[in-house]
Design brief:
mainly alpha, 4 helices, 76% helix
Amino acid sequence: MSILKKIPALLAVMAPGLVQAQTATPYIDRDLVALGVAILAGGVGLLALLEVIKRLFDYQLKRRALELGVSEIPARETDEALTTLKWFSIWLGLGLGLTLVHFTLPLGIHSLAILAFCLAASFLGYFLFLKQCSPKK
């Protein structure tokens, strides 16, 4: 069968997914959006507060070590660059997920599945990056 004979059949199969009827914009409850924004803003605010407290304690520990004349300051387990990369991957996965949700309106349970898979993929990418870059023992 030639490629020219396959094109109409392919278009007939793909047409329902490509063609959308003109409908009104989907209804989104403003109270739910406000609640989601409030939870997100509160979470980001608490994470920022936690980061400020952590940096303050690190500063106090280093200052106290210098005052006591300790030659070696205890090293922390986490690396700043890896933490930044982790948050970049999380926000990248969230942004990709929200973009895909936008293109698959109306909102439903599939929207949560899309977000979950995108975030899982971003964590998987971060894990594989750590595994690739970790020193071999």
